[in-house]
Design a protein that fits this description.
There is one protein chain. By secondary structure, this protein is an alpha/beta fold. The chain has six helices and 14 strands. The protein starts with 9 loop residues before the first strand and ends in a 7-residue tail after the last strand. The structure holds flavin-adenine dinucleotide and FE2/S2 (inorganic) cluster. FE2/S2 (inorganic) cluster binds next to loops.
Length: 271
Protein backbone atom coordinates (compact mmCIF):
# COMPACT_ATOMS: atom_id res chain seq x y z
CA UNK A 1 0.00 0.00 0.00
CA UNK A 2 1.40 3.37 -1.01
CA UNK A 3 1.14 5.51 2.14
CA UNK A 4 1.70 8.75 0.15
CA UNK A 5 1.68 11.18 -1.48
CA UNK A 6 -1.43 12.73 0.02
CA UNK A 7 -3.76 14.81 -2.13
CA UNK A 8 -3.80 18.00 -0.07
CA UNK A 9 -0.86 20.45 0.10
CA UNK A 10 -1.60 23.71 1.89
CA UNK A 11 0.09 26.79 3.35
CA UNK A 12 -1.69 27.44 6.61
CA UNK A 13 -1.35 29.27 9.93
CA UNK A 14 -2.23 26.70 12.57
CA UNK A 15 -2.43 26.90 16.36
CA UNK A 16 0.03 25.20 18.68
CA UNK A 17 -1.78 22.83 21.06
CA UNK A 18 1.28 21.66 22.98
CA UNK A 19 4.97 22.56 23.06
CA UNK A 20 7.14 20.38 25.30
CA UNK A 21 10.83 19.64 25.76
CA UNK A 22 11.68 15.93 25.40
CA UNK A 23 14.85 14.91 27.20
CA UNK A 24 17.83 17.26 27.11
CA UNK A 25 18.04 18.10 23.40
CA UNK A 26 14.68 17.43 21.79
CA UNK A 27 11.31 19.14 21.63
CA UNK A 28 7.85 18.18 20.49
CA UNK A 29 5.07 20.29 19.01
CA UNK A 30 1.44 19.29 18.56
CA UNK A 31 -0.62 21.41 16.16
CA UNK A 32 -4.34 21.89 15.64
CA UNK A 33 -4.63 21.01 11.93
CA UNK A 34 -7.13 18.13 11.60
CA UNK A 35 -7.42 18.13 7.80
CA UNK A 36 -3.65 18.35 7.26
CA UNK A 37 -3.08 15.63 9.85
CA UNK A 38 -5.64 13.34 8.21
CA UNK A 39 -4.06 13.96 4.78
CA UNK A 40 -0.49 13.30 5.99
CA UNK A 41 1.34 10.03 5.42
CA UNK A 42 4.30 8.49 7.30
CA UNK A 43 7.57 9.66 5.74
CA UNK A 44 6.20 12.94 4.40
CA UNK A 45 7.29 16.29 5.82
CA UNK A 46 6.17 19.88 6.35
CA UNK A 47 8.12 23.06 5.67
CA UNK A 48 7.83 25.16 8.83
CA UNK A 49 8.29 28.92 9.18
CA UNK A 50 10.31 28.85 12.37
CA UNK A 51 9.19 32.02 14.15
CA UNK A 52 8.48 32.18 17.87
CA UNK A 53 5.44 33.89 19.40
CA UNK A 54 7.17 37.30 19.05
CA UNK A 55 7.87 36.68 15.35
CA UNK A 56 11.63 36.08 15.79
CA UNK A 57 13.30 33.41 13.67
CA UNK A 58 15.09 32.79 10.36
CA UNK A 59 13.72 33.85 6.97
CA UNK A 60 13.82 30.42 5.32
CA UNK A 61 11.50 27.62 6.31
CA UNK A 62 12.92 24.38 7.78
CA UNK A 63 11.84 20.86 6.73
CA UNK A 64 10.45 18.63 9.48
CA UNK A 65 9.19 15.04 9.25
CA UNK A 66 5.68 14.23 10.37
CA UNK A 67 6.00 12.51 13.73
CA UNK A 68 2.29 12.13 14.52
CA UNK A 69 -0.61 12.25 12.06
CA UNK A 70 -3.91 10.66 11.14
CA UNK A 71 -7.67 11.21 11.38
CA UNK A 72 -8.54 12.67 14.81
CA UNK A 73 -4.84 13.10 15.74
CA UNK A 74 -3.01 16.36 16.34
CA UNK A 75 -0.29 16.99 13.75
CA UNK A 76 3.00 16.36 15.57
CA UNK A 77 6.68 17.13 15.11
CA UNK A 78 9.62 15.92 17.18
CA UNK A 79 12.90 17.71 16.64
CA UNK A 80 16.45 18.20 17.80
CA UNK A 81 16.97 21.81 18.93
CA UNK A 82 19.98 22.45 16.74
CA UNK A 83 20.17 26.03 15.41
CA UNK A 84 18.19 29.25 15.28
CA UNK A 85 15.17 27.77 13.43
CA UNK A 86 14.55 24.86 15.77
CA UNK A 87 15.32 27.11 18.78
CA UNK A 88 12.55 29.49 17.62
CA UNK A 89 10.17 26.53 17.20
CA UNK A 90 10.97 25.39 20.74
CA UNK A 91 10.01 28.85 22.07
CA UNK A 92 6.46 28.51 20.70
CA UNK A 93 3.77 28.14 23.35
CA UNK A 94 0.23 26.72 23.29
CA UNK A 95 -2.02 29.15 21.44
CA UNK A 96 0.78 30.62 19.27
CA UNK A 97 0.38 30.40 15.48
CA UNK A 98 2.79 28.54 13.19
CA UNK A 99 2.89 28.77 9.39
CA UNK A 100 3.19 25.30 7.81
CA UNK A 101 3.39 24.14 4.19
CA UNK A 102 2.57 20.52 3.46
CA UNK A 103 2.24 17.62 3.61
CA UNK A 104 5.15 17.37 1.14
CA UNK A 105 7.12 14.64 -0.59
CA UNK A 106 6.71 10.90 -1.03
CA UNK A 107 6.43 8.81 2.11
CA UNK A 108 6.91 5.13 2.95
CA UNK A 109 5.18 2.21 1.26
CA UNK A 110 3.78 -0.80 3.14
CA UNK A 111 2.66 -3.95 1.32
CA UNK A 112 -0.50 -5.49 2.87
CA UNK A 113 0.98 -8.98 2.32
CA UNK A 114 3.91 -8.22 4.66
CA UNK A 115 3.86 -9.79 8.14
CA UNK A 116 6.96 -8.19 9.69
CA UNK A 117 9.21 -5.18 9.08
CA UNK A 118 12.49 -4.14 10.66
CA UNK A 119 13.26 -0.48 11.44
CA UNK A 120 16.76 0.85 12.14
CA UNK A 121 16.78 4.46 13.39
CA UNK A 122 19.42 6.75 14.82
CA UNK A 123 18.84 9.91 16.87
CA UNK A 124 16.01 12.05 15.62
CA UNK A 125 15.63 9.76 12.58
CA UNK A 126 13.21 7.93 14.85
CA UNK A 127 10.79 10.89 14.50
CA UNK A 128 10.59 10.20 10.76
CA UNK A 129 10.09 6.45 11.26
CA UNK A 130 7.72 6.67 14.26
CA UNK A 131 4.44 7.02 12.29
CA UNK A 132 5.37 3.91 10.31
CA UNK A 133 4.96 1.83 13.49
CA UNK A 134 1.31 2.89 13.85
CA UNK A 135 0.57 2.39 10.15
CA UNK A 136 2.14 -1.07 10.26
CA UNK A 137 0.22 -2.03 13.42
CA UNK A 138 -3.04 -0.95 11.77
CA UNK A 139 -2.26 -3.35 8.89
CA UNK A 140 -1.36 -6.24 11.22
CA UNK A 141 2.36 -5.97 10.38
CA UNK A 142 4.73 -6.63 13.30
CA UNK A 143 7.54 -4.12 13.84
CA UNK A 144 11.01 -5.04 15.06
CA UNK A 145 12.95 -1.83 15.77
CA UNK A 146 16.59 -1.17 16.60
CA UNK A 147 17.03 2.37 17.95
CA UNK A 148 20.49 3.89 18.21
CA UNK A 149 21.20 6.83 20.52
CA UNK A 150 24.06 8.51 22.34
CA UNK A 151 22.67 7.51 25.72
CA UNK A 152 19.48 6.46 27.49
CA UNK A 153 18.53 10.18 27.87
CA UNK A 154 18.44 10.59 24.06
CA UNK A 155 16.54 7.38 23.27
CA UNK A 156 12.88 8.50 23.14
CA UNK A 157 11.58 4.91 22.75
CA UNK A 158 8.14 5.95 23.98
CA UNK A 159 8.03 8.80 21.42
CA UNK A 160 8.93 6.25 18.76
CA UNK A 161 6.66 3.32 19.43
CA UNK A 162 3.65 4.90 21.18
CA UNK A 163 1.00 2.21 21.57
CA UNK A 164 1.99 0.38 18.38
CA UNK A 165 3.38 -2.68 20.16
CA UNK A 166 6.68 -2.44 18.26
CA UNK A 167 9.48 -4.56 19.74
CA UNK A 168 12.27 -2.08 20.51
CA UNK A 169 15.94 -2.89 21.07
CA UNK A 170 18.14 0.03 22.10
CA UNK A 171 21.85 0.42 21.35
CA UNK A 172 23.97 3.19 22.83
CA UNK A 173 27.25 5.02 22.13
CA UNK A 174 27.95 4.76 25.84
CA UNK A 175 29.03 1.13 26.12
CA UNK A 176 29.73 0.73 22.40
CA UNK A 177 26.62 -1.28 21.49
CA UNK A 178 25.81 1.27 18.73
CA UNK A 179 29.10 0.71 16.90
CA UNK A 180 28.57 -0.50 13.35
CA UNK A 181 30.25 -3.86 14.04
CA UNK A 182 27.99 -4.53 17.04
CA UNK A 183 24.84 -3.48 15.15
CA UNK A 184 25.93 -5.70 12.25
CA UNK A 185 26.00 -8.73 14.58
CA UNK A 186 22.64 -7.80 16.14
CA UNK A 187 20.92 -7.31 12.77
CA UNK A 188 22.31 -10.54 11.33
CA UNK A 189 20.75 -12.42 14.26
CA UNK A 190 17.42 -10.65 13.71
CA UNK A 191 17.37 -11.19 9.95
CA UNK A 192 18.17 -14.87 10.40
CA UNK A 193 15.75 -15.56 13.32
CA UNK A 194 12.70 -13.51 12.31
CA UNK A 195 13.23 -12.52 8.70
CA UNK A 196 11.39 -9.24 7.92
CA UNK A 197 9.60 -8.67 4.64
CA UNK A 198 11.17 -5.21 4.38
CA UNK A 199 13.60 -2.93 6.22
CA UNK A 200 13.51 0.84 6.82
CA UNK A 201 16.06 3.36 8.05
CA UNK A 202 16.70 7.06 8.73
CA UNK A 203 19.11 9.20 10.72
CA UNK A 204 22.63 7.84 10.14
CA UNK A 205 24.77 7.46 7.07
CA UNK A 206 26.79 4.64 8.65
CA UNK A 207 23.68 2.66 9.64
CA UNK A 208 22.11 3.32 6.23
CA UNK A 209 25.19 1.78 4.54
CA UNK A 210 25.13 -1.17 6.94
CA UNK A 211 21.44 -1.88 6.35
CA UNK A 212 21.88 -1.46 2.59
CA UNK A 213 24.65 -4.08 2.61
CA UNK A 214 22.76 -6.54 4.83
CA UNK A 215 19.47 -6.13 2.93
CA UNK A 216 21.28 -6.86 -0.34
CA UNK A 217 22.98 -9.91 1.21
CA UNK A 218 19.71 -11.31 2.63
CA UNK A 219 17.63 -10.31 -0.43
CA UNK A 220 15.21 -8.09 1.53
CA UNK A 221 13.71 -4.91 0.02
CA UNK A 222 14.13 -1.65 1.90
CA UNK A 223 13.42 2.06 2.06
CA UNK A 224 15.47 4.99 3.40
CA UNK A 225 14.30 8.49 4.33
CA UNK A 226 17.04 10.94 3.34
CA UNK A 227 17.70 14.31 4.94
CA UNK A 228 19.15 17.21 2.99
CA UNK A 229 19.20 20.93 3.67
CA UNK A 230 16.39 22.57 1.72
CA UNK A 231 15.56 25.94 0.20
CA UNK A 232 12.09 26.01 -1.29
CA UNK A 233 10.93 22.52 -0.24
CA UNK A 234 8.70 22.53 -3.32
CA UNK A 235 10.94 21.19 -6.10
CA UNK A 236 11.96 24.53 -7.64
CA UNK A 237 15.46 25.46 -6.40
CA UNK A 238 17.30 22.08 -6.70
CA UNK A 239 19.27 22.77 -3.51
CA UNK A 240 18.25 19.39 -2.03
CA UNK A 241 19.54 17.17 -4.88
CA UNK A 242 20.98 13.75 -3.98
CA UNK A 243 22.39 11.03 -6.20
CA UNK A 244 20.13 8.00 -6.62
CA UNK A 245 20.42 5.07 -9.07
CA UNK A 246 17.53 4.80 -11.52
CA UNK A 247 15.97 1.52 -12.69
CA UNK A 248 18.76 1.13 -15.28
CA UNK A 249 21.51 1.57 -12.69
CA UNK A 250 22.37 5.04 -14.01
CA UNK A 251 23.03 7.78 -11.46
CA UNK A 252 20.29 10.40 -11.40
CA UNK A 253 20.24 13.67 -9.46
CA UNK A 254 16.91 13.68 -7.65
CA UNK A 255 15.35 16.26 -5.36
CA UNK A 256 14.81 14.98 -1.82
CA UNK A 257 11.83 17.33 -1.38
CA UNK A 258 10.02 16.27 -4.54
CA UNK A 259 11.13 12.73 -5.51
CA UNK A 260 11.86 11.81 -1.86
CA UNK A 261 12.45 12.04 1.00
CA UNK A 262 11.83 8.25 0.95
CA UNK A 263 13.87 6.30 -1.62
CA UNK A 264 14.53 2.66 -2.36
CA UNK A 265 17.29 1.50 0.00
CA UNK A 266 19.48 0.02 -2.75
CA UNK A 267 18.97 2.97 -5.13
CA UNK A 268 20.05 5.70 -2.69
CA UNK A 269 23.75 6.57 -2.56
CA UNK A 270 25.61 7.48 0.62
CA UNK A 271 26.97 10.99 1.09
C1 LIG B 1 12.81 15.87 4.92
C2 LIG B 1 13.47 16.26 6.23
C3 LIG B 1 12.89 15.89 7.41
C4 LIG B 1 13.48 16.28 8.63
N1 LIG B 1 12.89 15.88 9.78
C5 LIG B 1 13.43 16.23 10.95
C6 LIG B 1 12.82 15.82 12.18
O1 LIG B 1 11.78 15.17 12.18
N2 LIG B 1 13.41 16.21 13.33
C7 LIG B 1 14.58 16.93 13.36
O2 LIG B 1 15.10 17.23 14.44
N3 LIG B 1 15.18 17.32 12.23
C8 LIG B 1 14.64 16.99 11.03
N4 LIG B 1 15.23 17.41 9.87
C9 LIG B 1 16.43 18.25 9.96
C10 LIG B 1 15.98 19.70 10.24
O3 LIG B 1 15.35 20.20 9.07
C11 LIG B 1 17.20 20.56 10.57
O4 LIG B 1 17.77 20.12 11.78
C12 LIG B 1 16.77 22.01 10.73
O5 LIG B 1 16.46 22.53 9.47
C13 LIG B 1 17.87 22.82 11.37
O6 LIG B 1 17.43 24.16 11.38
P1 LIG B 1 18.04 25.20 12.41
O7 LIG B 1 17.70 26.56 11.94
O8 LIG B 1 17.68 24.84 13.80
O9 LIG B 1 19.58 24.97 12.27
P2 LIG B 1 20.56 25.70 11.27
O10 LIG B 1 21.06 26.93 11.98
O11 LIG B 1 19.95 25.85 9.93
O12 LIG B 1 21.68 24.62 11.21
C14 LIG B 1 22.34 24.12 12.40
C15 LIG B 1 23.31 23.04 11.95
O13 LIG B 1 22.59 21.93 11.41
C16 LIG B 1 22.99 21.64 10.08
N5 LIG B 1 21.79 21.25 9.31
C17 LIG B 1 20.72 22.02 9.01
N6 LIG B 1 19.80 21.30 8.29
C18 LIG B 1 20.31 20.06 8.14
C19 LIG B 1 19.85 18.88 7.48
N7 LIG B 1 18.70 18.82 6.80
N8 LIG B 1 20.66 17.79 7.53
C20 LIG B 1 21.83 17.83 8.17
N9 LIG B 1 22.32 18.91 8.81
C21 LIG B 1 21.58 20.01 8.80
C22 LIG B 1 23.59 22.95 9.57
O14 LIG B 1 24.54 22.72 8.54
C23 LIG B 1 24.25 23.50 10.82
O15 LIG B 1 25.50 22.90 11.06
C24 LIG B 1 14.68 17.03 8.64
C25 LIG B 1 15.28 17.41 7.43
C26 LIG B 1 14.68 17.02 6.23
C27 LIG B 1 15.30 17.42 4.93
S1 LIG C 1 14.43 22.33 -1.62
FE1 LIG C 1 14.11 23.40 -3.50
S2 LIG C 1 14.06 21.76 -4.92
FE2 LIG C 1 14.16 20.73 -3.02
Amino acid sequence: MDLGPAALVAERNVAVIESQPVGRRYHRLLLDAPDLSAASRPGQFFHLLCRDGAGNGPYLRRPMSIWRCGPGEALGFLFHVKGKGTAALARLRAGDALSVVGPLGHGFTLDPSWRRILILARGVGLATLAPLTGAAAAMGIAVDAVLSARSQDDLMAEAFAGASGARVTAVFDAGGTSEVGAVDVLLRERLAQARPDAVFTCGSNRLFLLLQRLAAEFGIPGQVALEQQMGCGLGMCFCCVRQVRDEHGEIANLRVCAEGPVFDLQAALAW
